[in-house]
Amino acid sequence: MQPGNKTQPSEFLLLGFSEDPALQPLICGLFLSMYLVTVAGNLLIILAILSDPHLHTPMYFFLSNLSLVDVCFTSTTIPKMLVNIQTQSKAITHAGCITQMFFFILFAVLDDLLLAVMAYDRFVAICHPLHYTVIMNPWLCVQLVLVSWIISVLHALLHSLMVLQLSFCANLEIAQFFCELSQVIHTSCSDTFLNDVLVFLAAMLLGGGPLAGILYSYSKITSSICAISSAQGKYKAFSTCASHLSVVSLFYGTSLGVYLSAGAAPSPASTATASVMYTVVTPMLNPFIYSLRNTDIKRALKGIFGQKL
Prior knowledge:
Layout: E1 11-14, H1 24-51, H2 58-87, E2 91-93, H3 94-127, H4 132-135, H5 138-164, E3 173-174, H6 181-186, H7 193-227, H8 231-264, H9 268-292, H10 295-308
Parallel strand pairs: 1-3
Antiparallel strand pairs: 1-2
């Protein structure tokens, strides 16, 4: 490719789901409903935690941060998709695409890191209960969240700056409903070796690292629970981890499913559909998982609605 044929694009095209005009209202209604449920559910979790002094503990502090990140995560992609459906356009500007990609990476990694932090919190609570309040002091909790934000911002910024160095040719179609990093890189006609290496290393460090921490924490938690003599004690200890373990399984299970589905059926529609699982469905289900299995959250929510009634 000659340098003269390279250009910085004015816009990208998000192929999204089906191009059938008859399906667009259905897709729009479905995703609007899911988005509203996600935002309302996670904001209710945050409100419940803020309004109930009994929930001002490390576990619920991390949960409120996770709910906030989930709202931001879905808000990065869904509103733009809904606007494109309503305007019957697939276009997103170059600046808009890079911005969306930055925030998507930021909140995806932050979600991952917060799940690891929450696993550590459960590890300390079950394996070192007598020292829990000393170890998980407010300053450490703030530090853990702050470090997670810093790592996520720097990681997203690095990828975005690397993409800005690329040149793009004629094929500007992205087989997604949002500007996903690898899809954007693959539209470039520049040498993307460094970008691909960075994506791989980041996946190993920021994907595999937190997962390894979660698995280690739960291996220790399992050992501690097995050492408890009473069945009631075992159930109580496990119940404090059940919601988090469900969210972790859902997050990593759907993320892995995306890459397996993309490799098996790399059509735009199938790739976009697979991505819905971890970009929309997981953040939507998280509030239900935590509220339905958590008596403290349910009590706080009843208090909120009771006051309003």
